[in-house]
Amino acid sequence: MITLKSRKEIELMRAANVMVAEILDILRELVRPGVTTMDLEVRAEEETRKRGVKPAFKGYYGFPWCLCASLNNVVVHGMPSEDTVLKEGDILGMDFGVLYKGFYGDSAITVPVGEISSTARRLLDVTAQSLDRAIEAAVPDNTLGDISFAVQSCVEAEGFSVVRDFVGHGIGRKLHEAPQVPNFGEAGKGVKLQPGMVLAIEPMINQGGYKTRVLEDGWTAVTQDGALSAHFEHTVAVTDNGPYVLSRI
Ligand code: MG
Ligand code: MG
């Protein structure tokens, strides 16, 4: 069942998501060659504690960290590590969430480490653009399929592929709520969008094939072909005034 959020609840979710956005901005500024993904985790936890909120991911189905740090061929759910040292030319996905006054915020960015290849740059740009297209489709009387199609059509036109094994989601008092929000699908199909729906829209886009596999740690999802992957996410409320991007500041 899809739970619709009241205006007041959406404003609480806005507050949660603004904190997520602020913290991701801080982390983005720290990304440079020589920094480890554990350095970023430590800062994410400090900033979370400073704001008196709870990290959304730590302990979620046993995930041990606040931050998902997904380097290069890692699609999502990368584990921060002191052994993962960023180097020039890498791309780093950072997915982060908090729980505030009973509501979740969830957002992700993928950032370049120093100078990156033109292909990597294009992958980041197209993935971000596909999220913008999807957000534009998050309006009343459109359907979930319109969001999915917006991502898929944008990405495939550029020769990249859409991950099938992980999808976006409804969000609210739970981190993952109905409906699932796939990044592939047909325009006009699926549930009709209504004011009060809040969706975490999160294209996960591969440079090569769409297939993924999960490493032995049970979390780290990588591209099967070893090529790069990018991930951007916003939490978006469907409203009568159009899409309200709660995690954009
Ligand atoms: Mg996320
Ligand atoms: Mg999410």
Walk me through the structure.
The chain is α+β, with helices and mostly antiparallel strands and 249 residues long. Helix content is 28%, strand content 27%. The chain is built from four helices and 15 strands. The strands form four sheets. It has a five-stranded antiparallel sheet with strand order 8-7-9-14-15. Strands 1, 2, 4 and 5 form a four-stranded antiparallel sheet that branches. A three-stranded antiparallel sheet has the order 3-12-11, with no helix packed on it. Strand 14 (234-239) and strand 15 form a beta hairpin. Helix 1 (7-30) runs antiparallel to helix 2 and helix 3 runs antiparallel to helix 4. The protein is globular and about 45 Å long. The chain starts with 6 loop residues before the first helix and ends with a strand. Bound molecules: magnesium ion (2 copies). One magnesium ion binds next to strand 4 and strand 5.
Small molecules bound: magnesium ion
CATH C-level category: Alpha Beta
User: By CATH's scheme, which homologous superfamily applies?
Assistant: Creatinase/methionine aminopeptidase superfamily
Fill in the CATH topology: Creatine Amidinohydrolase
Q: Uncertain regions: pLDDT < 50 for 5+ in a row?
A: none
What spatial form do the alpha-carbon principal axes imply?
globular
